[in-house]
Amino acid sequence: MKLALDYEARVPIRAAVAVALALALGEASDPRLRWYWAVMVAAVLVNGTWGEGTKRGLTRFAMTILGAAAGWDLSVLASHSHAARIAILLASVALAVYFRGVNYGWFTFFLTVYVVSLFEVLETTTRWITLLRVYQTFVGCGIAMAAALFVPMQRASEQWELDAAELVKVCRAAARRSYDRLLESAGAAGAAGAVHQTGVIPQLDKLRNSAELAGYEAVLDRAAHRRRKDFMEHAWQLAQATLSLDSVAANEPPALARSGFRDELARLRAMIAGDTERSVFDAASFDAFRDRVADARRDGGLTAGDYLILNAVAQFSAEIAAIAHEAERGLGLKGNALT
User: Fold this and answer.
1) First-to-final CA distance of the chain
2) Phi-psi region at 117: left, alpha or beta (left = phi > 0; alpha = psi -120 to 50)
3) What does the pLDDT profile of the chain (339 residues) look like in tens digits?
4) Which of 211, 200, 194 is nearest to 170 (CA)?
5) How distant is the alpha carbon of residue 229 from its chain centre?
């Protein structure tokens, strides 16, 4: 069953399906167990991508078990002191709140310790309730995945493809500004400096996260894992080369006219900006540019400053070409996402 809705619009529908499945399962098995933990877990795991949902589900179940074990051990240690039980309860609440937006695993862990501690303070049958919580957490994780079969989630691999294309786009824009600074183009003032503010580093971090989540969708697909790993290495190098180019453009005088490379640099800038019909990833042009820079340096035809500028441009161009090559090998970037 597939719905013609965007992924965000599917989330509330998927949540309703998950809750309905949890309630139906509870009524069909044993209504006396009050399946609110299964309902709660199923409802909170329905957003995000397949990879994110899988990771969160595994994390939730594993940390619930660890939290239950820790809660039991602490309850034994504090069994003769009501004040100690209160202290454990307050500490677990504080830590759960602290980790809520920081680390989902530790949040789940301390939340479970809190639940166990709460029932200890209330002098309720703790162990049976804790085992019930662990069991219903497992069921809730499974129900969340089942709901995603009826109302599909976005694939993390799809999000990774979008993030990869966006990183290249952001780096192209940053390089374009650096080229403008080097060429003293119109509007070059303020073009250089602080590339991270234009989104290169945040986008790289986002790409790393989506690559990790995509791995949860194809655990046994070693070829896909290897391709993503290779691409991520190129992406890191691309970001570093972009930062290097920005630093050079910000600190070196743009005195390229005497170097004989000004026109070639302008052509590269046009390709990066998409101002020509030629592909921005014309690897032959980039390789030829790098060879000419190396030859000019070897022959003594470049000053140290001009060589530094041109070498940074060559490095950035080489990384663009490398990423294009990875895309051509079928890495998964769709259509003209890179051009």
Assistant:
1) 34
2) alpha
3) 444 456 677 777 877 888 888 878 877 777 666 777 788 887 777 777 777 778 888 888 899 899 988 988 888 888 888 888 899 999 999 999 999 888 889 999 999 898 888 888 877 666 777 787 888 888 888 888 888 777 777 777 888 888 888 888 888 788 888 878 777 743 444 444 444 446 888 888 988 888 888 887 776 677 778 878 888 888 888 888 888 878 877 776 555 544 567 777 777 777 776 555 444 556 677 778 878 888 887 887 777 777 777 777 777 777 776 676 666 555 555 444 444
4) 200
5) 14
Q: In angstroms, rounded to a whole number, what is the distance separating the alpha carbons of residues 54 and 51? A: 5
Cα 339 from Cα 327, distance rounded (Å) = 11
Q: Is the dihedral of CA 327, 333, 336, 337 positive or negative?
A: negative
Is the pTM above the cut of 0.70? no
